[in-house]
Amino acid sequence: MTQGLHTEHTFEAEIEAHLRAHGYEPAFSHDFDRDLALFPQLVVDFVKTTQPKTWEKLEAILKDNLDALFIKEVCKVMDQRGSLEALRHGFKFYGQKVQLAYFKPGHQKNPDLWTLYGQNRLSVVRQLRYDPSNDNELDLVLCLNGVPVVTCELKNAMTGQKVGHAKQQYKTDRNPKAPLFVFKSRALVHFAVDSDEAWMTTQLEGVKTWFLPFNRGHNNGAGNPPVEGKHRTSYLWEQVWERESLLDIVGRFMHLQKESGTNPNTGEKWTKETMIFPRYHQLDCVRKLEAASRMNGAGTNYLVQHSAGSGKSNSIAWLAHRLASLHDKNEQKLYHSVVVLTDRRVLDQQLQNTIYQFDHKDGVVEKIDQNSEQLAAALATGTPIIISTIHKFGFIQGKVEALPDRRYALIVDEAHSSQSGEMAVNVKEMLADSSLDEKLSEQQLDWDEGEELSTPDQLALRKALLRGPQPNMSFFAFTATPKHKTLEMFGHRGPDGKPAPFHLYSMRQAIEEKFILDVLLGYTTYNRFFKLAKAVADDPQLDKRKASSALAKYVNLHPTNISQKTQLIIEHFRSTVAHQLGGKAKAMVVTGSRLQAVKYKLSFDGYIAEMGYTNIRCLVAFSGEVTDADTPMATYTEVGMNEGIKEGELPEKFASDGYQVLLVANKYQTGFDQPLLCAMYVDKRLSGIQAVQTLSRLNRMAAGKEQTFVLDFVNEREGILASFQDYYETTTTADEVDPQRLYDLQHELAEAQVFSESEVNGFAAVFYQLPNTVSPSSHAKLNGWLDPAVDRFKALGGNDDERVELQEAFRSRLVAYKNLYSFLAQIVPFQDPALEKLYAFGRMLLTKLPRPETGGALDLDDDVILASLKLQKDAEGDLDLQQDEGGALTGPGATGTGAGASPKVLLSTIIDALNQRFGLNLPDHINNTLSGVADALVSSDEVRLGAEANDKANFAHIFNPALEDKMTEHLEENGDFVTLFFQDTELRKFLTTRLLNEVYARINSNKTDSNQKDRKKDDEVGAKVLPFERVPLEDVLPFVNAVPLYTLKVAAGRFSDAQAVGEVLQHEEVVNPSGVEWVALNGRTKPALGLFVAQVVGESMNRRIPNGAWCVWRLEAVGTWEGQIVLAQHEDIADPELGTFTVKLYESEMLERETEEWRHTRIVLRPVSFEPSFEAMVFEGEESGALRVVAELVEVLG
Questions:
Q1: Looking at the structure, do residues 1171 and 1124 belong to the same domain, yes or no?
Q2: CA 222 to centroid of chain Cα atoms
Q3: Same domain, 1045 and 1190
Q4: Within 10 A of 99 (CB to CB), how many other CB atoms are there?
Q5: What is the pTM assigned to this prediction?
Q6: For residue 699, which of 735, 719, 727 has the smallest C-alpha distance?
Q7: Under a CB-based contact definition with an 8 Å cutoff, are residues 238 and 232 in contact?
Q8: What is the rounded CA–CA span in Å between residue 201 and residue 133?
Q9: pLDDT digits (tens, 9 = 90+) for 1013-1061
Q10: For residue range 320-375, what is the model confidence (pLDDT) as tens digits?
Q11: Domain end (from 467, 484, 505)
């Protein structure tokens, strides 16, 4: 063997040789100034070469002192602002702008910029002596124009040294106070590398230094794949440190992340700075997406499956910035605007801060956080990067002129929750270019010869074309847990024809790289064994399904059941969990219903008090109000049970040392990031994506957090393991859904003879109208075309059993058609308006079809007793996720599920059957009712638009079909439950009502938080301390630091005309602020044009607005008035409290046009009061047109 081939020296020489052969220059340790931590002559030479005129001007001023003074200023700037900012933006020196580096231009329009870019000098130094206090050497240092950027310690496994030794060397042998290592002022990143792995850090902190893996990943896990004839880590110097790559990273990836917050225990403010260097998968993903976009242009979709812990926020920020500046081969912007669709507030500020560091330009990013007009304006002006929720697109029809033909990149955050159904069509309809109409014209020419498409057919075909891909839009979808729809819509087809992610960072890799924890390690399940007995002498015959459901619910909510679990949870937490993380560990209890959460809270508080524990307290989270038949006089709310802690305050309060356990019912199971959570106690049915999302609340890393605990009272280990297995590595789909099945369903629906083709066409002629042709009678006409089908549906069958069977068979086929068309139309370019028309007709018909009348829900609480109950540990230990064991996700079902009549069975028979299944010998479960479905619905955002724009009654028309959509999505994974849902009318009614209330309250909770605490009817007007501060006139900045204070009468008189807020409504206040009194807002609302404060006196709204409360009002609606509390005026109003104007809840019956406008036919102003004497005001016909809505309620201040 040749001497020295296996040594570290040879490894080091190989890397240097490659870099020097690819654009790097050699530099030497003796030229390095250890005190200044740079190569002074290289810095000076670069400036002299690239900016000779500037240097000449400086020489004229500073003469022979120039070099020394210039280098001194360079060091000062880097010490104060950081070397990254100095390299990226330069600085001014004696009136001259000096650049320390030039980065790659975004286009070819200026050749001089490319010349300067080419003059950057990258150098590599071996064995650099860097420390002024000793002669310690660094293996490799990479410099940009004399400024050190990268340091590296190399280790060689063949001499017994591995990457861990390099990390340890940085932690213990490298002085973090040495000038080269001072955070952010000189070297930006430090690599520990051997032949197999690479790790990095951006801040040396001695033994506390935290290294991150910088590896490519291997077989969907950690590490690096073997490379023939090369080191596994060769990508580092061949790709990442490559000249153009490193310049790109310094210029357009690295940034200084600044965070701030408040210590929940002390109230002290804190700030934190972190230098962000992209992890390998982020760098790889963003660059590949950019390259694919440049090659493919607009019109291609991409799916990014990145696990929790992948740093999606930074990946999205980098991608948005690069796409916004991307140019095609003709030097035209590839995308005129980048639209980021997200519900995460943290992403808003992060995007703005990150992109500002790249460009130092304002106005590049606009967050749509006010109303739909703001979105319309941003689109109209072509703002480069727009951050919005998808729901705002449903409100901007008619609020913006037709947009010019433009190309858009749409980055979708958590794609599965926001990119389905009609909301996605709204986005495409708003942004589609003229090619859509050109394609429509082509379709008309290709239509059957001699047959001309009618206007409704043209509009239906246009809507169908909108559902599919658009040539001027590219979607970039990010998600950790893609659904079947997400894969089909955004995935790239592999050799097997199945859709797959464009880029993958798997859950397995995130776990193995320790960015998240494996929550299935230490998973314990408990079986519940119980015995029921009859408590009455008679033995009635009962509906089997409803009785079984009622008995299971009785056991779930029984005090014995709750109390046993309470004791087990608290004692397990105290003995096993509480001491973790230095005594700061926390736990979550996932309950199956709001009522169960209430009972748990009462049980927890009682047990803690009984035992005298002082080191454990709990909070509860649920939506709306809950009543309990066991305590009929009590009404429970989250705020009330949490001693006045508002919903928005709960996460911060839970983060403090004052609370250890959070009890949840359909809240905080997705998107809740609390690293101190170490344990979860599950008393709810979980499966599929809901199981993954819920249990993943535990996976966040924290200092000292090495394991998690799960105690599951409901689910089977195999089912939970299977749910995670689908998302452990890459996610794929089962066999494709056959598009031809749509025509089969169309035929089967027609064969049922519930509706005729002429009725579908008649409905379409009304539904698909040009905006200027919609009339007030359109709503009635739509019903007129639907009603005959409803009547025929009711008349199906010769007897009751046959009627139920035929009705449910038709209904399930119609649901299947609706879901299948909505799914396939986004993938398959259907050119048949008949399919679209049947889809629209079927959607509306489903909302009108009656449910079977099977009587009320059963209440058997007085007819049975719980004879015995026992909790027994079933299994304890790790659930081992396996490689290559993921299942295939299935799409929407292509067939429906018919329902038959439910048999009548003796109560004793049902009890025996349940006892057999849940007795002491058979550990099966029957809790297959509300729990699984609740997860599917609470994780969906499709109903948010309707909840924000409607009152609860009207919201039901939107919510009910959305719920059916969600249920059908779960047909494959939970078929028994879905079948039961569609068969059991009372179960469906109960579930729908409960979920409607929860979802509606959750979406709108930010509007009512401040009202839930004050419900006393004896408030004395004016007795409270004013909830605002009056601002002296000399300090007033109108609508910046203060808003006007009016009386309601003044507001109603001045602002009842329909005028634009920005033009007239408060113009007088802006130009003459002395004309009104000004106040500063102390609530959550920030001052803005259109807002004012006024006091509401009276009891007619005391459930929402206490008598005498001061409120913030908005003169212009965000969306519609529907379901909002408004200030209204009408000459016929005779409000006993306010005269000709009134404050009431606004409700209406209305017809939605295709333009998203509303035509009101009947308006109701409804009191919301504990006093039954207040009556609603009803306006119909011409009366409704004379009603003037002045303002809407924004916030109750107090």
A1: yes
A2: 27
A3: yes
A4: 19
A5: 0.67
A6: 727
A7: no
A8: 23
A9: 333 333 333 334 678 888 888 888 888 889 998 887 777 767 765 433 3
A10: 999 999 998 888 899 999 999 886 665 556 666 666 666 656 778 887 777 777 88
A11: 505
- Exposure of 677 by Cβ count < 10 A (0-12 exposed, 13-18 middle, 19+ buried)? buried
Q: What is the CATH number of the domain that holds 495?
A: 3.40.50.300
Write down the residue that tokens 């050799």 correspond to.
495
For residue 813, what are its two tokens? 């086929």
More confident residue, 4 or 1103: 1103
- Measured distance CA(985)–CA(993) in Å, rounded: 12
In this predicted model, what pLDDT tens digit does every residue of 567-619 receive, in sequence order?
888 988 998 889 888 899 999 999 988 999 999 999 999 989 988 999 999 99
Q: Looking at the structure, do residues 210 and 303 belong to the same domain, yes or no? A: no
Q: What is the pLDDT of residues 240-294, one digit of tens each?
A: 999 999 999 999 999 998 888 888 888 889 899 999 999 999 999 999 999 999 9
Residue keyed to tokens 């006089």: 633
Structural domain includes residue 586: yes
Distance CA 1118, CA 392 (A): 10
Count Cβ atoms within 10 A of the Cβ of residue 1075 and give its class: 0-12 exposed, 13-18 middle, 19 or more buried.
exposed
**Do 237 and 314 fall within a single domain?**
no
Let me know: does 809 contact 898? Beta carbons within 8 Å: yes
Distance (Å) of CA 472 to CA 292, 402, 409, 925, 979: 15, 15, 9, 52, 42
- The answer to whether residues 225 and 158 belong to one domain is yes
- How many C-beta atoms surround the C-beta of residue 659 within 10 A? 18
- How much is the pLDDT for 819? 79
Residue 925 maps to a domain: yes
Q: Is the pLDDT of residue 628 over 50?
A: yes
Compute φ and ψ for 230, nearest 5 degrees. Answer: -140, 170
Contact assessment for residue 503 and residue 279, using Cβ atoms and an 8 Å cutoff: no
Listing from the earlier edge strand, what are the strands of the sheet with 408-413?
Answer: 365-367, 385-388, 337-341, 408-413, 473-479, 302-306, 503-505
Residues 1118 and 1176 in one domain: yes
CATH at residue 1079: 2.10.109.10
Positive or negative torsion for Cα 948, 949, 955, 960: negative
Domain count, the chain: 4
Checking 357-362 for CB contacts under 8 A at 24+ apart, the result is: 357/85, 357/88, 357/255, 357/256, 358/88, 358/251, 358/252, 358/255, 358/321, 359/321, 360/89
pLDDT confidence of residue 1060: 38
Domain end, chosen from 946, 980, 1013, is at: 1013
* Strand, coil or helix: 1037: coil
CA separation for the pair 1052, 1055 (Å, rounded): 6
Q: Establish if 767 belongs to a structural domain.
A: no
855-869 pLDDT per residue, tens: 455 454 444 444 444
Of the two residues 139 and 1163, the one the predictor is more confident about is 139
Rounded distance, CA 1189 to CA 1057, Å?
Answer: 9
* Measured distance CA(1180)–CA(1161) in Å, rounded: 6
Residues 1097 and 1084 in one domain: yes
In a domain, 870, yes or no: no
Does one domain contain both 327 and 439?
yes
How far, in Å, CA of 647 to CA of 621, rounded? 8
Rounded CA separation 1026/864 (Å): 55
Q: How far is CA 714 from CA 25, 719, 923, 928, in A?
A: 65, 11, 11, 10
* Best CA proximity match to 259, nearest among 178, 349, 394: 349
For residue 685, the enclosing domain spans 516-731+896-1013
